Amino acid sequence: MTRYDAKALEIIAKGKPALVKTLEFDGNFVKGIKDSSPTTTVVARLFLDQHNLDTDPAPLVQAFVEKLLPLATDPLRMAGIDAWEAYNEPIADTVDKMKRLADFEAERTRILAENGLRSVVGNFGAGQPPLELWPEFRPALEAIRQYNGFLGLHEYSAPVMQFRSGGLQLEGEPEQGDEGWLTLRYRKVYRQQLIPMGFGDIPTLITECGVDGLVQPRPGPADAHGWQDFFDTWRANGLRDDPPGVYMDQLLWYDQNLQQDDYIKGSAIFLAGSNDSRWDSYDILGPNAGRMGDLLQQYLEVHPPQG
């Protein structure tokens, strides 16, 4: 969520999703979310410039906590928000960058915990980071284990969420079973890296998911972004002429997979209620979303989160 939206609040109150992520953290707003659905994990994120992973992380930690703590320690926010992210989709594509990111996340997790706050670390973009770099993230994983935090991952694909998982691959790429390179990538992360490292019990939140045409390479229009930009592609590939229903089918497929893995504690669809025209094509509650909000609410009411 990026703003107040009456339909989104109705979905939360009646459907009680496992996770809500918000970039709007007015104290009364987030406390209202928590009061209407106490079992929902509420995660918040500040808008920040991209993390410079070529520099010493210590000054970045200090700058981050000085900006966040006056906001996050407000009593209403503490009552309404369960955990805070830091930088969005950091690009940690070398050993040194991953080490610096891990040190940043570990230290800010410690400082936030000293102030009664929990953290969601990582929040890597779809298909990131390279699998072989996960051992360098150990300090951050140790910190969230010690301070009751979460690992955050983003999983998107396009033109449908299933693309590059299972057998739906780029030409010439091998079938991936019950894993994927974009969506369901988290299983590769756990099986190949976290479990061998001793972190198979780390709780993970999929802090963003959905259809995103910015994830490349992929079929479909080159300039397509959110799910609403793929309606013609879906029809051309034989999917029924019911875009909200087609997207809901994809989200249902994803949710059914997530619920097979106990370490996944929730996922947040990007997005419900846009305050930026760049994101309108992603919005499941916008003017072109049709009955998407009603479909999601019905699904959540019939299929409550497990555990």
Task: Tell me the layout of helices and strands.
Layout: H1 6-15, E1 19-22, H2 27-36, E2 41-44, H3 57-72, H4 75-80, E3 83-84, H5 95-114, E4 120-124, H6 138-147, E5 150-157, H7 185-197, E6 204-211, H8 231-236, H9 243-258, E7 264-269, H10 292-302
Parallel strand pairs: 1-2, 2-3, 4-5, 5-6, 6-7
Helix pairs in contact: 1-10, 3-5, 5-6, 9-10
Q: Overview of this structure, please?
A:
This protein has 307 residues and is an alpha/beta fold. It has a single domain, classed as TIM Barrel. 38% of the residues lie in helices and 12% in strands. It contains 10 helices and 7 strands. A 4-stranded parallel beta sheet has the order 4-5-6-7. Strands 1-2-3 form a 3-stranded parallel beta sheet, with helices on one face. Helix 7 links the parallel strand 5 and strand 6 (204-211). The longest helix has 20 residues, at 95-114. The protein is globular, with a radius of gyration of 19 Å. The two termini are 23 Å apart.
